[in-house]
Design brief:
The chain has helices spanning about 10-15, 40-45, 50-55, 80-90, 135-140, 150-155, 170-175, 200-215, 230, 240-245, 275, 315-340; strands spanning about 25-30, 65-70, 100-105, 120-125, 130, 145-150, 190. The chain has about 375 residues and is an alpha/beta fold. It has two domains: about 10-230, NADH:ubiquinone oxidoreductase-like, 20kDa subunit (Rossmann fold, 3-Layer(aba) Sandwich); about 235-305, Cytochrome-c3 hydrogenase, C-terminal domain (Cytochrome-c3 Hydrogenase, Chain A, domain 2, Irregular), CATH 4.10.480. The chain has a five-stranded parallel β-sheet with strand order 2-1-3-6-7, sandwiched between helices. It is found in: Cell envelope. InterPro entries: Cytochrome-c3_hydrogenase_C, NADH_UbQ_OxRdtase-like_20kDa, NiFe-Hase_small_C_sf, NiFe_Hase_small_N_sf, NiFe_hydrogenase_ssu. This is Hydrogenase expression protein HypE.
Length: about 375
């Protein structure tokens, strides 16, 4: 049942606890005015399982009606018409419970000392001055039923937060607090990626929407607030090239199909499912198409993974230690491969059937 305009979300949650199953209608307020390239929005439109179109058009069984407010996909002409639901939500007057999606790093306005702004979204209705992203977070954060950070910039700061940046950029949890809880009782849901893998984000958003209806529990998150089922394994564990690592068979250049650890791949220590999931329609993914993993889903990105093309510190040691084992295993497998690549001798076109039956285990 949809919350009526003017009814607080806290009241709605209390009512749900008294027998209501959840919400029938939810707004998604998507702000990409963080320090960003808008690449996460563009990437999200490539999802097919589910697609954003299917969610908005109500084609996914069991989801609430979804009203998406995203500047790239908005049917409005922009301006005040587009800003209206954001302004209402900031006043605590949202017509429906809303999920706040933030794209882009959060700059530190404190270091400007009130003189100017790093990035803004709309203007103050009284003064006409630009409203910084931080103002919107301060006013929308307390009212949001759920908050989702889309992409590594929004989750952990990303490129804009690297050492030496002048903006003091940070991730959403660094700004709102790692102990932040939304009006729906949820922590921030971080979906990292530079940009997000399309299905990773839409699958997570769909889970949050099912939770809003009361049909699913909260999404399980790890200590860095990432969905556990998506980021619980490393790139290496799902990589098509992992067997080459086991056999100590390493690429020496980027044209090789072998393990790329020695040419700069951080896959063994990076939490990401892209090699298994692919990028679009199950196709692609960095190591799958010859690209090294540079750790773009990780909180330490990019500083902890630079310079990108150098062998990771642990890669040199691990590749040396595994070399004797890998060489032996590769040789033994080669011998076995040669044996099983031959047909048994009893398969012939002669005048007697020889089955090859040999009960050698009997006395």
């Amino acid at each position: 049942m949809t919350i009526d305009s003017g009814t607080t979300q806290t009241d709605g949650q209390a009512s749900r606890g008294a027998g209501r199953k959840g919400f029938d209608e939810v707004d998604i307020l998507w702000i990409s005015e963080g320090l960003s390239c808008d690449g996460d929005t563009v990437s999200m439109t490539a999802s097919g399982q589910p697609s954003i179109e299917d969610v908005v058009m109500g084609l996914i069984p069991g989801l609430p009606k979804v009203n998406l407010h995203n500047k790239v996909l908005s049917p409005t002409m922009g301006g005040e018409e587009y800003l209206a639901p954001f302004r209402a939500a900031a006043r605590g007057e949202a017509a429906n419970p809303f999920i706040l999606v933030i794209e882009g790093s959060i700059p530190n306005q404190n270091i400007i000392e009130g003189d100017g702004y790093w990035t803004s979204f709309g203007n103050d209705e009284t003064t006409g001055e630009p409203l910084p992203l931080n103002w919107w977070l301060d006013h929308l954060g307390p009212h949001a039923w759920a908050v989702v950070a889309a992409g590594t910039c929004a989750t952990y700061g990303g490129i804009h937060a690297m050492a030496g940046n002048p903006t003091g950029a940070m991730g959403l949890a660094d700004y709102l607090g790692w102990d932040y809880r939304s009006a729906g009782g949820l922590p921030i849901v971080n979906v990292p990626g530079c940009p997000i893998q399309p299905e990773n984000f839409m699958e997570t958003l769909t889970w949050v929407l099912y939770h809003a209806t009361g049909a699913a529990p909260p999404p399980p998150l790890d200590e860095m607030l990432r969905p556990q089922w998506l980021f619980g394994r490393t790139v290496h564990e799902g990589c098509d090239r992992a067997a080459y690592y086991e056999q100590a068979d390493f690429a020496k250049d980027y044209n090789s199909p072998k393990c790329q650890v020695k040419v700069g791949c951080w896959g063994p220590v990076v939490n990401c499912n892209v090699p298994k999931r692919g990028w679009m329609n199950g196709i692609g993914g960095c190591p799958n198409v010859g690209g090294i993993c540079i750790g773009c889903t990780m909180p330490g990105f990019p500083d902890a993974f630079m310079p990108f093309m150098d062998t990771p510190p642990g890669g040199g040691l691990s590749s040396v230690l595994i070399r004797p084992y890998g060489a032996f295993i590769r040789r033994m497998r080669g011998i076995t491969n040669a044996v099983v690549n031959q047909e048994p001798k009893w398969r012939h076109n002669e005048d007697a059937v020889t089955t090859g039956y040999d009960p050698h285990w009997r006395a």
